[in-house]
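Issue: ligand-bound run for zinc ion - logging full I/O for the record.

Environment: standard queue, default settings, no custom constraints.

Inputs:
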Amino acid sequence: MSPCPESQEGYGHWDDWVDGPDDPMCNLCGLSCVLGLPSPARGPHGLLDAQVIGGYESTPGNGCGAVDDMTRYTFNLCEFCLDWLFERFKVPVKTDDPMNDYMLREGESVAEGVERMGVVRVMGHCDKPAWRPATQRVFDDEWRRDKQEFYAERDKRKAARGCI
Ligand SMILES: [Zn+2]
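Outputs:
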């Protein structure tokens, strides 16, 4: 898979995504990060091109961390492996609606908000339920469709991760 011809670089634009050998691969399970049935929603999903860079103080054995100085580590994690990691967090991952970032300021008109942010949230602040594992959400929520496809993809990636 590769970005469509109009894209500039990377995975930021994937309308009309075409499968190819350059698909972003999940570093944990080794499978493609491209998810979805053929549709406009099909494309890379997850933590893509994530990077961490060590510092002088963090170099293992010569500092107090585990990431080497002046070394950039780049990786991808598919959504299934992210969910697997979230489940193991001692501190639960936070959830919220990203549109909460587009609330109007006190006294600001919609036109002023659009001018400032490009888009506004007009329905008021939206809370999200606390995080639950994807398997639990699919099991609990009757409105979710394609449950069998979810279970099949989850099991495929679990098997690909091997013993973990
Ligand atoms: Zn994965």
